[in-house]
Design a protein that fits this description.
Layout lengths: L10 H11 L6 H15 L11 H16 L5 E6 L2 E6 L4 H8 L6 E2 L1 H13 L2 E2 H8 L4 H9 L3 E6 L7 E5 L1 H7 L10 H11 L1 E2 L4
Parallel strand pairs: 3-7
Antiparallel strand pairs: 1-2, 4-6, 5-6
Helix pairs in contact: 1-3, 5-7
Amino acid sequence: MNNDVEILPEIKQIIGSLLFASKEPLGIAQIKKAINETGNILDGVYKQYSKVNDQQIKDSIQLLENELASSTMGIELTKVAGGYRFQNNLLCGPFVRSLLEKNKTMKLSKPALETLAIIAYRQPCLRSEIENVRGVSVDAVIRKLIEMQLVKVLKRSELPGKPWLFGTTSRFLEHFGINSIDELPNSNELKKIVSENIKIGDQT
């Protein structure tokens, strides 16, 4: 009797491992590429993975999502920033935050927070538009938000002088647990989410 038969993982198991290992949300294309390329490299019995298609990946993700939803593990499979990731159940959030509160947090001053909200809701927007709303210069604040990868330069506008237009990043979406800008909450909800996710400091 041959005891060397390899038991190959199901596609959903592979996807689960990829999502667990990744620091960023993974899209269908990224998952497919990782599986296909590995199948080609390993060859042999693994060759079958080189032909895994988008629909198989979508079906497997749905299976994973359903299994986690029906479990009591406190973990969910969620679509954010155009990709998929594991995250803790909403009801378990306070316990996770309690554990992590001693770790380094993302610090934003109130001026930076106000600027981020303006950019999020008005993007693409000009620096002058932000300054008109806030009534002060925002150069330093915008630089800080860009350094934190929450804001990015989108392109130049067609106005005289071609000033830059600013918008939010995929990290912004990921950090606030939304899949697109269309899912932005109203101002009161955003304030609550921000207070739970970002530590507000005293300095910009």
